Amino acid sequence: MTKKAESLLPPLEFGRNGLSGVAGISAVKMKESDSNNRSRAVGRLASGRWTAMIPAAVFAGLAFPWLWRDLWFDEALTVMNFAVFPPLEIYRNYAIPNNHIVYSLVLHFWLDLLPSGWPVDVWIRLFSMITGIAVLAVFCRMRIGAGRWWPVVIGLALAAAPPVLTYGTAARGYMLGAGLVLAALAGLRRGLYCGSLTGWLVYAAGSALALGAAPTNLAALAGAALLLVPRRRSGVRWSRLAAAGLIPLLAGAAFYLPIGDRLLAASRLGEGWPDPAAAAAAWSLTALISLAVFLPAALGIFRFDRRRLAAHLLIWLLPLVAYALLPTAPFPRVFFPCLPVLGLALAREGFRWGASLRRRCRTGLLRRSRTMLLWGLTATAAGLISGSVAVRSWVSPFCGGAYGDDFFSGYYLQPDFTPSATAGQLVNTAPGPVYLSFNADPWAVSFYARLMGMEPERLVFNSPRVRVTRLTRGWRAVLRRDEDPEAVGRSFQCRLIPESDLGFHRIYRVE
């Protein structure tokens, strides 16, 4: 050994226990290092687990008051026409696309667990809220190239966004669909990069159930696959890439093949928006406002390779492609499950942008903890501002207005929409039959009237099975506030006399 090498070693020491030198010192240091590493690992694990729950807790706190909203048209229709029937009949009953089959099946069993004394509508909404809490918790743990903190920050923005609060407490399958898409994404990640058979099975099951909740969830599943587009020279086999694209199609076909004739008939109904451009604008504006606070993070895309950049842009464009190709524009709400996938893509962009910024600016102000705290507070504040009544009322006209807006301030989100109060008025003051106009949301009024004990045959309204052609003297008529009672009276050859003004609804006596 050279003198230079000897000079680099620590000196030997003689003590009561004999020679202690490099080996003894190294053992002590290794023990200290192992202890420190274990404590850091436990701290990181606990921190990751608890920080992932912060957006879920914010969502739970903000969504809790939304549980007491009255059910609206599609929600009441889901309960009364689908969820109350036996499971096999729920599966076969696909007369209209309003039946989110998987959600209706889950809701069927959820209703069996109704506790004594609970309001039925609150209990129905509670399932979606629990699902929303789980979705946000899982979202924040999905670190797909986005680090530990950015999904949490994006999750805070989503937790306070009006669309998430709306469909996180809705008696519909949109939030459940979002959760199933995230489950499919987790399985695809393991299958695509690890070749895990369990991952592929989870991907197939998640895809089948997500498409069973709504066939339009194919757009969200395509976005999930785009999120995992591999880099160049990643070594991912082409067979796995082909499987990622084919499995959702095969899973959806397997789910709907036994009821294929009903699916085709429902698709021919042409339900949707009459103006595809307006529907596309509504989706774009929703995605922009829900995640607007993170637009600076999009600067990170200029550091991406072209393949990743194109994939992330396609996630946002997929609904727009649907609007361009389909003969009838789908309701913007059907693409709600795309929001979490888009959020994960933006979290990845924010992570890369933040890493680049930290490399360029070595100041204490850009320490990760301070930066993430600032982003988190900004995200929550932005969500609260976007969820305020003033902002939602201002945005709503750009998304179709009160009777077309799916996300911000639709008629069923307005405080004067109280079909339960209308039903109570009818039960107490209307001894005879009641006509409900289609624009007055007849299913919601009918739901609450039946809960209050009104006989179903006393409520009449136009539907595919029943056509009302005449109103008789002594009946009551319920119209929407902006409907012309004189025009309605002329169509039925009668006169409508105002009786009660209940905000969204007007009750008239037929003469």
| Low-pLDDT ranges | 1-47
> Which descriptor suits the 3D outline?
globular
Which whole number gives the mean pLDDT? Answer: 80
Tally of helical segments: 21
Listing every helix as H and every strand as E from the N terminus to the C terminus, the arrangement reads HEEHHHHHHHHHHHHHHHHHHEHEEHEE
Strand order of the largest sheet: 4-3-5-7-6
Helix/strand structural class: mainly alpha
The major β-sheet equals: 5 strands, mixed
Number of strands: 7
Proportion in helices: 55-70%
Oligomer: single chain
What does the radius of gyration come to? 28 Å
Q: How far is the N terminus from the C terminus? A: 114 Å
- Fraction in beta strands: 5-15%
Please give a quick description of this structure:
With 511 residues, this protein is mostly helical.
Question: Could you give the topology of this structure?
Answer:
Elements: H1 3-7, E1 13-15, E2 18-20, H2 22-63, H3 73-83, H4 87-92, H5 101-112, H6 120-141, H7 150-159, H8 162-167, H9 174-194, H10 197-213, H11 218-227, H12 238-256, H13 260-267, H14 276-290, H15 306-325, H16 338-360, H17 368-386, H18 389-395, H19 419-429, E3 434-436, H20 442-451, E4 459-460, E5 476-480, H21 485-492, E6 496-502, E7 505-510
Parallel strand pairs: 3-4, 3-5
Antiparallel strand pairs: 1-2, 5-7, 6-7
Helix pairs in contact: 2-6, 2-7, 3-5, 3-20, 5-10, 6-7, 6-9, 7-16, 7-17, 9-10, 9-11, 10-12, 11-12, 11-15, 11-16, 14-15, 19-20
